[in-house]
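User: Predict the complex with nicotinamide-adenine-dinucleotide.
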Amino acid sequence: MQINTCRAVVTGGASGLGEATVRKIIQNGGRAVIFDQSEEKGLQLQTELGEAVFFIKADVTKEEDIQEGVHQAADYMGSINTVVNCAGIGIAEKVIGRNGAHNLSLFSKVIHVNLIGSFNVIRIAAAVMTGNEVNEQGERGVIINTASVAAFDGQIGQAAYSASKGGIVGMTLPIARELARYGIRVMTIAPGLFHTPMFDTLPQEAKDSLGKMVPFPSRLGYPNEYAQLVQSIIENPMLNGETIRLDGAIRMQPK
Ligand code: NAD
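Assistant: Here is the predicted structure with nicotinamide-adenine-dinucleotide placed in the model:
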């Protein structure tokens, strides 16, 4: 699929990797609807980027938000042929911490937002995509999820986060297999360390030392480098049913 034909829903599109994805799609002539909980940043981006972008305040974990949002997005853009799932949260908590056992509701929350939220958007958007006309390559759409290297080398304190991202990796192939008959591809990106607002609170020294852990290039990734991979996945029809690490060869240590 050519990126200028993109009619994309980007969850978490108001910040970080999602925002870079929205910018990439717009700069290349496509259109995007942002689903995010952060109204202030979402509306800011909508104002800045003009009518190629529309912001919808939506919580990916809520069935009604996504049902309504997907239909609104399809009306606004004429159709949806791309989903990029970037909405996510991270926590750090040990199974046995200073204050006792891991908080169970916090564990559930991370699974809910990162894994179930991604699935919620996939299932509702894919149902709408099946109604698209096929393009010259037989495609009706592409779905791109965001896992993390923590799906493979999770650190101490990342039980919930790693489980949520491992779930995303695990569901990629079965969903790709099922949606193949409709010409809808499903891919997942597993980023290493990227410079997003998550890291803005860290002092420069801490950012530099995190960057040095990356074999090459020895720095945090730029969100635009994530968006560049999104573009390649959109444009290359042979990419399907797989998770790609985007990490400068980093392998996270136990802590
Ligand atoms: P970010 O915090 O900059 O952006 C995440 C966005 O998701 C925010 O705008 C937030 O409002 C939104 N969001 C959170 N919960 C939501 C919900 N329930 N419904 C709708 N929107 C919601 O983070 P980022 O660094 O851009 O991360 C994007 C994704 O990439 C996340 O899934 C994260 O786990 C993953 N990731 C990031 C890194 C990194 O180094 N930055 C590394 C690996 C994986």
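The longest helix spans residues 104-129.
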